[in-house]
Structure formats: C-alpha cells, structure tokens
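User: Predict the structure for this protein chain, please.
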Amino acid sequence: MQILRTLVALAVPCNAHWRLTVPMTRKGPGYENDPLGSPVACRNALPNPAVRVETYDAGGVMNIKFEGGGHVGDCSVYISYDVDGSVNAARFVKIANLPDCRSQINTLVPITLPSSLPAGPAILRWDQYALHQGSFIEWYVQCADIEIRSSSSKAWDSFNKFSMASAYPAFSRSNYRRNIAVPGDSDFYMTGPSCVDESINQCALTAPGTPGNSGVGGEGDGPMPPAPAPTPAPSTSPMPLPIPATTPAPTPTMMCEPIGDCDAYSWCTQQTYVEWCSLQDPCPSPFCQSRELTPVPTTPAPATMTTSVPTTPARRCVPTLEGYYTDPAIYGPICEIQGDANVCAAPICRWEELGLAQTSVRKHRFLGTTLLQAASEVEQVAAHEEF
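Assistant: Here is the predicted structure, written as structure tokens:
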C-alpha cells in the first residue's frame, strides 16, 4: 500500500506555504504565506512606504526569490505600470514562466526583463497555482513595487494588457496539468497568458496555440482588431439533406478501478477510492487500473418507483478563523470549494451544521481528505516532507 501512502502526501494539507521575498513585497518582512482562493491582482492594495523600492534595467536581469516549503504547481511573473489607481483596476503583462517552481525555492532565480518595457515606477507580481489539493487550486500571490530604467520608446498603452480576473481559466481537469507531471513528461504544460516576449524566461510554454494558453496577452501593439465578417455566399435553393439515423451511444467496455482494497487502513475509505477512480479519464496509473467489462444481456427496464429521500442535517464548510486562518475573505472561498467536494480540512476549515435539509447524491471529484485522511501527526509530517 505504499502507493496509497503516496496519495496521502498529495491529498493531506501540509505546512508548505510560501511567499515572494526578493524583491521585498508590500507586506514587508514577516509571515504572509497562506494561500488565497483566487488569483487577485495584488495581495496588498497599497505600497508600503517602509519598504525600499529597488531599481532594475529593461533588457537586464533581476533576481527574485520565493521562500517557504513550496507546493507542486507552476509560477509566473507579471509587470504593471498602473500604479496610480485602484490595484483591482490595474492591468498587467506577463514576463516570465517558472515551471515546477518549487524546484527553485529558497534560491535566487534570474529573470530577464523585456527590453521593450518603458521607464517608470511599476508593480512586479509573482503568483503560483498550487495543484496538490486535486479538486481546487491554492493561489499564492505577492506584489512588489519597483522602478524600471529603460530607453524603450514603447508606450505602456500600446501593450496587450489584461486584468488578472481574465488571466486564468476556471479550475477543471482539462484546464490544468496533471498535478504530479514535471517538465519533460508528455502531458506537462503550463496554464496562463502569453508573454510580451516569447524568447525569454521559458515564455514559449504559454505561447498562443499551446494547451494551457488562456487567450490573453502577447507581443502585439494593443488589442487585436476584430476579424472581418465573412462575405455571404450567393443565395441558392438549398438541397434537402438526409436526416441521419440516430445511433445509441457506445456502451463502455473498460472500467477504471482501484489497484487494491484500502479499507484495512484507518486513513482510507475504499468506497470513495472506487468512486474517484471511476471518474478519471484516462485511468491514472499507478493509483488505478483499467479492467475490461463483461457484456451483460439486456433486460426490460423495471417500472419506475418513486421513493422518498430521508432528510438529514445539512452542513456547510466554513473557516475556523483560528491561528493563521483568521481572514474570512481569504479562507471563505477555499472552505466553500472544499464543502462542495464534501471535504472540510482542519485547521483551515470546519463543518457548520445548518439543520434539516433535503440531501441528494453527489459525485466525489476530490481525491482529498475524504478519500485519504491522515491518522496521526506522524502521517502529516510525512506529507510535509514530500511537498
């Protein structure tokens, strides 16, 4: 069952949070390592006058550093010159991709600044989408105020700027890579906008046409003009088209199922393990295995019977508002997403009973603490050491 213990490391929350420290962010020194529920523009709305503003040269190299424990996922770096208005209204351009960035944690990482960047005060933004939870993303975001020296004549208004609200697609299996894929794997790709210069900082990973490109950003001068409307073809009498015969959907011939029975372990529930494997496509080895189904003879469908569904106490997943997790604006969305997956992981979240409500059958798409709950502090420490 070593494979199942590996799954625990992927699913159980661990103290591996991290943050940008070079250049120093608007927070300043101190702890700001907890995740967010969405990719906000900046974690802090205003510059910090106590933090020194570093100066960098367009076309030159700057070093950044992110410190902490780190999670599986990818990082990106953005620049904005919208320093005078609301941070939520700021528009950004992307300048760097950092695939599997936990491999560069706690060290100085060189970033080449595009030579086209104009001179002036700017906001440097670093983020990571952490994929270890399985059914939702933990976002780590920090902003630093910097100054750019440049001889570029390109105006900021001419860049293909975008808001961070449009930078990333909603989380689903098809929009983000397999969480344990690494650069070099056939199914590895990054998700996010195009960069202003695809030739630097591994920006080709999110160029237009790549699997994870989100459709914004790029090198052009301003937004692309709309495509011209097609010229209508000359009107002719349409020929009647044959109506295709309706064919029944193909019957599945393969089933994705667990590699073994894990009910003997206190931290594992076999029924949820079965449900999770059955929802995967393709069937993820080595955690699950494919089995050919034996055709079953068809029989007349039984008469439909109406039965009452018992009512049970309803509940929702809410923040604990304890320890580091005291901000409901940050942890409310995270706990709500966990609750939708029938999961509520301490110490960030807790269940809150709401009284009697009608229950319904839901499919579990979260390979998290519902499937694999660590039985002791020893198991959680093991998870922390892996991620």
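The mean pLDDT is 79.
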